[in-house]
Each structure stands twice: as structure tokens, then as C-alpha cells.
């Protein structure tokens, strides 16, 4: 007769914290650094590319490499370790695409640090705003050769933002339905206020 071990295996995002010192609020300093490093480096290279190199190709390749490293790091490492979220796309045997959004179980003993969560979400939200500004500035300044680079920056950073927002609010719920429910609730509140006024 086989005996099964009664200990549960570590779930997604759980780690053995017994050996880790508890002094710092930031439990993953290297991950936190690289979460911000690649995305801010891509923005800085874009802004200062005329100083670094006169070659458009060198600047474009450098920015795209930094954006790719950022996309991979945020999607596969920092989201999992800093906030306990991850997302991916898988193709089934029929060729249909399925998006999977996961979050760490709340009852697991490994909770996220508030400082790491703030670093994660601040970097995830602020950097796409820069790329939106770059898209408009590229169009209005007629620097059309940079348009593909800034659109790639926006798409890669927006994809991670969208994926993690879906993970945070629940992968099964539709963001459009949530927005319309919120809007309907606000309209109902305004209507109730107007009926209460004499």
C-alpha cells in the first residue's frame, strides 16, 4: 500500500520564507529593481537617443531590446513575486486561444509587501502614460520614423497593464461589464440624490 505524504506542496507564488530575514519591507529587492530598470531605461534611451548615438537603427534596436526584456520580466517574474499575479495565453487542440489570469490564494501565508505592491503598480501604470505621450508627440512633431518604436512601447506595456488588471479584478469578470456596472451605480446614486432634494 502506498503512503501519501500529508504535506501540501507549495502553491503558485508560495516560497519558503523561514530562511529569509524579515527586516526589509522589500522582500525582493533585485526583482523590484529590474521591474523598474528596463522600463525606465527604454524611456530614457528614447528621450536621450540623440546624445547616445546618431544612428536611428542602434537606438531603435536598443529600445526594442529593453522593452522586450521589460515585457518578459514583468510578465514572468515581477508580477508573480511582487504581487502574486500572473497571466498567459494558451492554445488548445482546436486552435482556440484562451487567456488565463491567476492570483495567489489569499489564505496562503505568503502575502505581498505593501512597498513592493506600490512599486509594481506605480511602474506598471506610469510608464504606459509616457508611451502615450510619446505617440502623440511623435505624430505632432512629424517624426514618423519613431512611430513604430513608440507604438511598440505602448503595446508591450499596455499588454502587461491589461493582463495584470484582469488578474487583479478577476480573470473571469469582463472589464467592460465592470465599467458599465460602476457607471450604472453612479447614475442611480445621482438619481436618488435628485429625488431626495425638495
UniProtKB/TrEMBL annotation:
GO terms for cellular component: Golgi membrane. InterPro entries: TVP23-like. It is found in: Membrane. It holds the Pfam family DUF846. It comes from the Eukaryota. Its main location: membrane. Keywords: Membrane, Transmembrane, Transmembrane helix. The chain crosses the membrane at residues 54-74, 119-140, 146-165. It is a multi-pass membrane protein. One of its GO terms (biological process) is protein secretion. Belongs to the TVP23 family. This is Golgi apparatus membrane protein TVP23 homolog.
